[in-house]
Each structure stands twice: as C-alpha cells, then as structure tokens.
Amino acid sequence: FGDPASVFHAHAFDATNMVLDAIEEVAVETDDGGLLIPRTQLRDAFFDTSGYKGIIGTLTCDENGDCNPTTTIAVNEVTPSGDFKPSFTITLDLEEAK
After folding, report:
1. CA distances from 85 to 5, 27, 90 (A)
2. Angle at the Cα of 93 (from 77 to 98), degrees rounded to 5?
3. Are 73 and 89 in contact (CB under 8 A)?
4. Residue 20: in which H helix or E strand, if any?
5. What distance in Å separates the CA atoms of residue 19 and residue 92, rounded to the nearest whole number?
6. Backbone φ and ψ of 67, nearest 5°
7. d(CA 20, CA 93)
8. Which of 29, 53, 58, 80 has the fewest CB within 10 Å, making it most exposed?
9. Quick one: DSSP state of residue 4?
C-alpha cells in the first residue's frame, strides 16, 4: 500500500494462502450464517500442511509450524546457448543455524 514489495513478497503470498487453505479446511458455518474458525483446529491444520505447492517451492510444515527448515540455494551460469549450468549448490538446515 504505497510501498514497494519487499524481498519476502513471495513468502507472504504463500503463507497467506496456506492460512486461507487451513481456514477453509476447518471453518464451520453456524446456524445464523456466521463462520466459526476453531483456533486449535486451525493451528493443527496449518501445522499438518504437507506438499503445499507455492511460488517459493513445495512446503511442508513440522509439528512446531516451521515450514521447510531445510533449504537449497543454487547459483546457475547461463551458457552462450542459453542453457543453465549449475555452478554452486548448497543445502542448509535452518534448525542447525539456531
């Protein structure tokens, strides 16, 4: 809203959609047309996310709600033919970085 998107715009997009999917999974329509979203069930549904295909990759959350504590970073070189040639790849376990 008036500011440029940060470097985490894709993460925010995926997180929002994961929460909305969890809400859709657990929400109950009440007799008067309202919507009841049980907090514990919402938390459990979010933590149970597995194989969510987002724009930053495929996300799976653990029992603490941490999604993909392991990540791979790759640097590719564009060859003269336009192909990508891997020049550096590293896999980081974010749990070990704590």
Report:
1. 30, 46, 15
2. 125
3. yes
4. helix 9-26
5. 25
6. -105, 120
7. 27
8. 80
9. -
Beta-bridged to residue 91, according to DSSP, are: 72
Rounded to a whole number of angstroms, the CA Rg of the chain reads: 19
pLDDT digits (tens, 9 = 90+) for 20-75: 999 999 999 999 999 999 999 999 999 999 989 888 888 889 888 888 766 777 89
Q: In the numeric block, which tokens belong to residue 13?
A: 């997009």
Amino acid at 84: F
* Mean pLDDT (whole number) for 1-25: 89
Asked if 14 contacts 55 with a C-beta cutoff of 8 angstroms, the reply is: yes
**DSSP-based three-state secondary structure for 88:** strand
Calpha distance 19→5 (Å, rounded)? 20
Contact criterion met (CB below 8 Å) for 48 and 67: no
Q: What is the pTM of this model?
A: 0.67
Q: Which two tokens stand for residue 85?
A: 């040639």
